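Acetoin utilization protein AcuC
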Amino acid sequence: MSGEAMLVFDEGLTAYDFGRGHPMSPIRVELTIHLARALGVLDELKVVPPPTADDALLQTVHTADYIAAVKRAGEHPEVPDLEHGLGTDDTYCFSGMHDVSARIVGASVEAARAVWEGEVQHAANISGGLHHAMPDRASGFCVYNDPAVAIQWLLDHGAERVAYVDVDVHHGDGVQAVFYNDPRVLTVSLHESPTTLFPGTGSAGESGGPDAEGTAVNIPLPPGTGDAGWLRAFHAIVPEVVKAFRPQVLVTQHGCDSHVEDPLAHLTKTVDGQRAAYLALHDLAHELADGKWIATGGGGYAIIDVVPRAWSHLLAIVAGNPIDPETPVPEVWREEVRIRFQRVAPMRMTDGQDASYTDWSSGYNPDTWLDRSIKATRDVSFPLLGLDPTY
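Tokens:
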């Protein structure tokens, strides 16, 4: 990789905290940073602190009334505002909610700015990827939608075509909603079927608004899908649709809650399959967008065994020096986990899987839910992008 790579981070981003026992624990980000540091990954990244997004920047996606509601919720967290999705069972109110949420947005926008202006080729905000937030309400642990604001910033600063690929186990509904009728943005989401998982959207038939048909691509996957099936679906659809769109920049969301150990969903991927997806997206950015790549975090609730390893792999790929899966997990990090959590941490950066898959060109099997899902997406989306849906 030519050009420096960036991580936008400081410890203030771990103040995004819905409280003890909530799945969206800031510990997952903290442990990721500690592991990435122990592995030497941070030495290969330009680490910069995030600016705070001001109201004008937030209002490029969110309504003024909603921003005011978030501020009130942070000042009086004991008072729910259900009209704006604040104080629900998913998205609790907490002190300073607006401040840290605006910093997360600022981090993603700073990553986008640095890439778009040519300071770096790749930039990451692992605290971001809060893809469920809607313009006028919080949803699914997400207060402000940092990927959407970053994409809008790119559009407002000259980008004509932005591709967004979301590999979180949950549908990237908020980002899709913001750009559903904008032909300048391609949103692609691979997620567990909406019939079995929140938010209940993301069917193959959701393909873009009347002015942007074909610019929303959804790949709903059956529960139980593991590395081989997930990668089969990814490679059967994502490279072709992104190539057809011809993006100038690639924005990706890397929720790692597709892992078999994640407590909130039902896919069965491993860290090895997730690493393979990150590598594929890196290569896609270089093939189609001159290497311009902005990567965010997202979901992921196996906060010790999965998230730190998955996102350390992501940061290493962003830095241009992928970690060998057989690399031992540094003992200093394992000791931290033992002392703080009385847990035995993973010993290696792999789950011991080879992440191989059977390519779609091998043939369509109508007897499998997976292949029927892949075919449904190809049948809907490919013609709208000028592609042949047959293999």
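Strands lie at 5-8, 46-48, 122-125, 162-166, 185-192, 216-221, 249-253, 293-296.
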